[in-house]
């Protein structure tokens, strides 16, 4: 930590901010220091740390001092870290918080995540060395000291070698993974070709493929994630899976729907169902496809799509048009209401409140007053008076 | 003279020929389906093997995830189409993105009263990460973009608007056409825009600029500052970074507007 200098934190001319991250703790090697909670800024020239509570406390180290960096993954009770190995401080360094340190590296702990992006950007900046092309107002600490150079050669070489080995190992793992992935994709591609050929056969011989076979084919497409070449749908809607899902949903959603006045938006349903599941979650498309089958399976719920494109699930017993009559009364009592106000009054989500008011308007019960202050609905007196 | 193709006999013969042709067609399809079923089983095994070796790589490495997704797209496969798909089941990619979808929905809903349903990708990322807690995997912006693209199908207006090299995430079914998008992009630089700036940069008539800004105001995506020096300024709350540290209720927000 003795490589850092106090700074105002203001960027010099020619220095550009690259990325910043809150919630970063600095450590001097393995030891904690008082720089516990700060914003870490990466510029083209420096790494800057500013205390979140006390903005006056701001320190920086030039990127030219960085030898190399490595990542440490998060663990139980531990945040992800970046370890930054540094050249020894030069003798003409500006004063900083520490006069000396027994470590040649510091650790950045990302308590609020952001480590992956920051590491990527830091690697880029260290590789590109943009500070060499953009001299700034401040004197940069270039490591001209030959003594320091010699010290560098001795202590760090061993560490560099170990890290190079680790990098090679990681690279090998990644390239093996990519190789395996490519082979896998070749096989997947064969499946796609086969499915296209079958789909062509189906198209040519309309009605000659049995329903059973169609169902089988659709389920194969679903497993592979291949768009149905005949209907262009990516989910092969109408599979057994979606039918079962529809029945399950009818069971799961009955009570929540009753608690919410008989109607829920599909996004609400998506969150509710997936939060309850915890694992083996539904994709948005799974949900939509299952819901599309509700009516045909004669289940007590149905999917409804409003003009705006908003999709909801309603209890069969729910009658939105009746709710509109009730909405009209509410609006009349208050004189006029916006969707926000109505939502709060009735205890609905704003999204659905707005849809109800729009439906009421469509049915002629309400009139709108559309101004910069918002969309307000009034009872339609034109209809009444005449 | 013996007329061909006419008469009960010819019709019957033709029907027989058609029936035989159909039968063959069905058999062909049956064969191919059987073949596909076998290949599917083999593929499943291959994928299992891949998963046993590299599942962690997908989980931990966002760059690898991007590669994976791109390769799938190239060959015409959507690994996120269904939770029941092989990819989801064996690589666990599905759960990662579908759960992210839930978190995105929740963050957007919580902030809607403040930003009208527009939020920068960066702010969304920060808040999602915060909500996930210390022990969860890191989430890249690419991950968020893919999750959002999947959410579109739910019909509640999720969309992406390109601005200044990144994106604004829309989470309400408000109609935003090219005009609105262009003004948002203009406003992104400073967080606000004026009618004069629109006229000068985009060469629009005042009326066109006014209509676009009014629409954004109505949707709650823009706030009007009539006390600005010179002419009124239209601010986008989605671009306020200072608002992070404050929690304002809708009532306070309303009072804050002159």
From TrEMBL, chain A:
One of its GO terms (biological process) is protein transport to vacuole involved in ubiquitin-dependent protein catabolic process via the multivesicular body sorting pathway. CDD domains: PH-GRAM-like_Eap45 (cd13226). The keyword Disulfide bond does not apply. The keyword Signal does not apply. Component of the ESCRT-II complex (endosomal sorting complex required for transport II), which is required for multivesicular body (MVB) formation and sorting of endosomal cargo proteins into MVBs. Belongs to the VPS36 family. This is Vacuolar protein-sorting-associated protein 36. It comes from Climacteris rufus.
TrEMBL record, chain B:
SUPFAM superfamilies: Winged helix' DNA-binding domain. It is found in: Cytoplasm. GO terms for biological process: protein transport to vacuole involved in ubiquitin-dependent protein catabolic process via the multivesicular body sorting pathway. GO terms for cellular component: ESCRT II complex. InterPro entries: ESCRT-2_cplx_Snf8, Snf8/Vps36, WH-like_DNA-bd_sf, WH_DNA-bd_sf. Keywords: Coiled coil, Cytoplasm, Protein transport, Transport. It holds the Pfam family EAP30. Belongs to the SNF8 family. This is Vacuolar-sorting protein SNF8. It comes from Climacteris rufus (rufous treecreeper).
């Amino acid at each position: 930590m003795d490589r850092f200098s106090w700074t105002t934190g203001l960027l010099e001319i020619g220095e550009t901010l690259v990325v910043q991250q809150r919630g970063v703790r600095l450590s001097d090697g393995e030891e904690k220091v008082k720089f516990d909670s700060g914003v870490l800024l990466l510029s083209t020239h420096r790494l800057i740390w500013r205390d979140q509570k006390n903005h006056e406390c701001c320190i920086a180290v030039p990127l030219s001092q960085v030898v190399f960096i490595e990542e440490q993954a998060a663990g139980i009770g531990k945040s992800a870290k970046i370890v930054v190995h540094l050249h020894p401080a030069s003798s003409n360094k500006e004063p900083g918080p520490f006069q000396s340190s027994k470590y040649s590296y510091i650790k950045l702990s990302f308590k609020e995540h952001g480590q992956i992006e920051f590491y990527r950007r830091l690697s880029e900046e260290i590789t590109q060395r943009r500070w060499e092309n953009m001299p700034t107002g401040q004197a940069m600490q270039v490591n001209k000291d030959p003594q320091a150079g010699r010290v560098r050669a001795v202590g760090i070489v061993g560490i560099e070698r170990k890290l190079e080995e680790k990098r090679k190992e990681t690279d090998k793992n990644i390239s093996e993974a990519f190789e395996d992935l490519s082979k896998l994709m070749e096989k997947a591609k064969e499946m796609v070709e086969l499915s296209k050929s079958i789909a062509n056969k189906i198209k040519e011989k309309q009605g000659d493929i049995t329903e059973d076979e169609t169902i089988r084919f659709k389920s194969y497409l679903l497993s592979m994630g291949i768009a149905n070449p005949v209907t262009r749908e990516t989910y092969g809607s109408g599979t057994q899976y979606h039918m079962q899902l529809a029945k399950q949903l009818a069971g799961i959603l009955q009570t929540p729907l009753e608690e919410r006045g008989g109607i829920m938006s599909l996004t609400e349903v998506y969150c509710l169902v997936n939060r309850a599941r915890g694992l083996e979650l539904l994709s948005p498309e799974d949900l939509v496809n299952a819901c599309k089958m509700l009516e045909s399976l004669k289940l007590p719920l149905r999917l409804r799509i409003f003009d705006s494109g908003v999709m909801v699930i309603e209890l069969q017993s729910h009658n939105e048009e009746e709710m509109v009559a009730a909405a009209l009364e509410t609006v009349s009592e208050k004189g006029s209401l916006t969707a926000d106000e109505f939502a709060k009054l009735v205890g609905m989500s704003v999204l659905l409140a707005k849809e109800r008011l729009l439906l009421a308007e469509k049915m002629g019960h309400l009139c709108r007053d559309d101004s910069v202050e918002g969309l307000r609905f009034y009872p339609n007196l034109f209809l009444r008076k005449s | 003279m013996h007329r061909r193709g006419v008469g009960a006999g010819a019709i019957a013969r033709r029907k027989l020929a058609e029936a035989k042709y159909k039968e063959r067609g069905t058999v062909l399809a049956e064969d191919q389906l059987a073949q596909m079923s076998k290949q599917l089983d083999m593929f499943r095994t291959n994928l299992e093997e891949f998963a046993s070796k590299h599942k962690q790589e997908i989980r931990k490495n966002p760059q690898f995830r991007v590669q994976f997704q791109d390769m799938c797209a190239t060959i015409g496969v959507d690994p996120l189409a269904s939770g029941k798909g092989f990819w989801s089941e064996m690589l666990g990619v599905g759960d990662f993105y579908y759960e992210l979808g839930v978190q995105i929905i929740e963050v957007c809903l919580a902030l809607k009263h403040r930003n009208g349903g527009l939020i920068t990708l960066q702010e969304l990322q920060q808040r999602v990460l915060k909500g996930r807690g210390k022990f969860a995997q890191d989430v890249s912006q690419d991950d968020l973009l893919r999750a959002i693209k999947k959410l579109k199908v739910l019909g509640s207006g999720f969309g992406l608007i390109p601005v200044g090299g990144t994106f604004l995430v829309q989470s309400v079914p408000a109609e935003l056409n090219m005009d609105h998008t262009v003004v948002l992009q203009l406003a992104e630089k400073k967080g606000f825009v004026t009618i004069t700036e629109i006229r000068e940069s985009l060469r629009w008539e005042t009326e066109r600029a006014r209509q676009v800004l009014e629409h954004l105001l109505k949707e709650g995506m823009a706030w009007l500052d009539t006390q600005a020096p010179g002419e009124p300024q239209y601010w986008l709350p989605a671009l306020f970074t200072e608002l992070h540290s404050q929690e304002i209720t809708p009532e306070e927000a309303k009072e804050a507007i002159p």
